[in-house]
Amino acid sequence: MKDIQLLTTHEQLKVLSDPFRSQLLLRLMEKPMTGQQLSEVFNLSRARIHYHLKELEKNDLVHIVKKEEKNGIVQKFYQSVASGFVADRSLLPHPEEMSETVRQMMINMLERSQKRVLSAPEEALHDETGSQDPSEWKYLSGAFEFKATENDFKAWLKKYFSLMEQLSEIQKQNPSPDAKTYYFHSLGIQVDEPIFERKKPEDEN
């Protein structure tokens, strides 16, 4: 699976702007699955799942990564061709479709993350420290707003991805039997207006 795949056709944008297909693609970014497995996950008929899989496959968004025979039936395992997608410059004449595609992927990712939080073990959410310093907590949760130029944001983004890469490499180099799996979901996007208003108590002014 590639890290990033370029979207080069208008049809690819249209396919991914469909809420269900983007949801399907997110599942196939996680691991290979068959049409039968997906029909059970989404509680939909295999025929309907198959139709959407074929649309994704036809537009080079998913591919078959392995086949297994079970009870005389060949099962096809589909997976996303990449863990992320970005629109090519050639698609700039279609800004509405580009925006809708990104919006749907973000919304579906938020819904998927919500399910991961709901299924997290109790120990992951139980903080024994009682610390007011978030860096000492055993989970990451927060919402922030900052003023920044686009260049400021892009420069910080490079540092952020570098830090994530460092974290992903630690256990590869020095495996520990105590290592746990951590799930991250990050979202940073320009908004119309701020919603946070922070004021000091009057006795601190």
UniProtKB/TrEMBL annotation:
Sorted keywords for this record are: DNA-binding
Q: Which residues form the HTH arsR-type domain?
A: 11-94
Q: Does the record's keyword annotation contain Phosphoprotein?
A: no
* UniProt cross-references to InterPro entries, sorted A to Z: ArsR-like_HTH, HTH_ArsR_DNA-bd_dom, WH-like_DNA-bd_sf, WH_DNA-bd_sf
A Pfam family matched in the record: HTH_5
The record's section on PANTHER family has:
SLL0088 PROTEIN (PTHR38600:SF2), TRANSCRIPTIONAL REGULATORY PROTEIN (PTHR38600)
Give the protein's recorded name. ArsR family transcriptional regulator
Q: Which organism is it from?
A: Halobacillus shinanisalinarum
